[in-house]
């Protein structure tokens, strides 16, 4: 199984293999181009996003600067706004539903590592090896339709946020949030139904 398939199947993978390094290099090149385009040149911005992202809906606005790893693992619905200085670590899929608003400084992280150092650090690695000295896996993130993700929110690997949720500013979301919820805090918890 290729390292990309391992990554998308939520298995331990090596992000330093040529196949993935090429995808990352292409993604980062397009992100750099996107971030340099004047805000008034919306046609060029849209063309770059179509080449960068896995899916780009109608009427999507991504403010700059914007950062991601692969780009092609990000799927955005229609009528979506993403504020400035957002970072999407899209080793695995990130899906964003229609009419969703994402405030500035939001971070979506699909990649993770084992907590215990003995499990995180590869026992078979030394300076002569190619590849990472650590174990990595990646788990998809999904944000439903008509959601509002407040400023400075961090969404961790494997989280699903349901339709019509509001996530309070500064929250760290480490568990799924059911549809129609107002949730906030670190760790993020449901405060009430909307």
Automatic annotation (TrEMBL):
One of its GO terms (molecular function) is O-acyltransferase activity. SMART domains: Mac. Pfam families: Hexapep, Mac. It comes from the Bacteria. Keywords: Acyltransferase, Transferase. Residues 4-58 form the Maltose/galactoside acetyltransferase domain. SUPFAM superfamilies: Trimeric LpxA-like enzymes. PANTHER family: ACETYLTRANSFERASE C18B11.09C-RELATED, SIALIC ACID SYNTHASE-RELATED. Belongs to the transferase hexapeptide repeat family. Acetyltransferase implicated in the O-acetylation of Nod factors. This is Nodulation protein L. It comes from Membranihabitans marinus. The lineage of its organism: Bacteria, Pseudomonadati, Bacteroidota, Saprospiria, Saprospirales.
């Amino acid at each position: 199984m290729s390292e990309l398939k391992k990554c998308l199947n939520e298995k331990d993978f090596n992000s330093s293999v040529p196949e993935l390094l090429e995808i990352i290099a292409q993604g980062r090149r397009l992100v750099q181009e996107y971030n340099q385009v004047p805000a008034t040149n919306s046609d060029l911005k849209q063309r770059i996003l179509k080449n960068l992202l896995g899916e780009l809906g109608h009427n999507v606005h991504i403010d700059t600067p914007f950062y991601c790893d692969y780009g092609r693992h990000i799927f955005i619905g229609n009528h979506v706004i993403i504020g400035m200085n957002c970072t999407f670590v899209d080793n695995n899929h990130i899906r964003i539903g229609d009419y969703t608003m994402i405030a500035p400084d939001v971070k979506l992280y699909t990649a993770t590592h084992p907590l215990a150092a003995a499990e995180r650090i590869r026992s078979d690695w030394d300076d002569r090896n190619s590849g990472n000295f650590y174990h990595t896996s990646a788990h998809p993130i999904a944000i439903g339709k008509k959601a509002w993700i407040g400023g400075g929110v961090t969404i961790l690997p494997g989280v699903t946020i349901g339709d019509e949720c509001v996530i309070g500013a500064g929250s760290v979301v480490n568990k799924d949030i059911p549809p129609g919820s107002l949730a906030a805090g670190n760790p993020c918890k449901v405060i009430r139904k909307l």
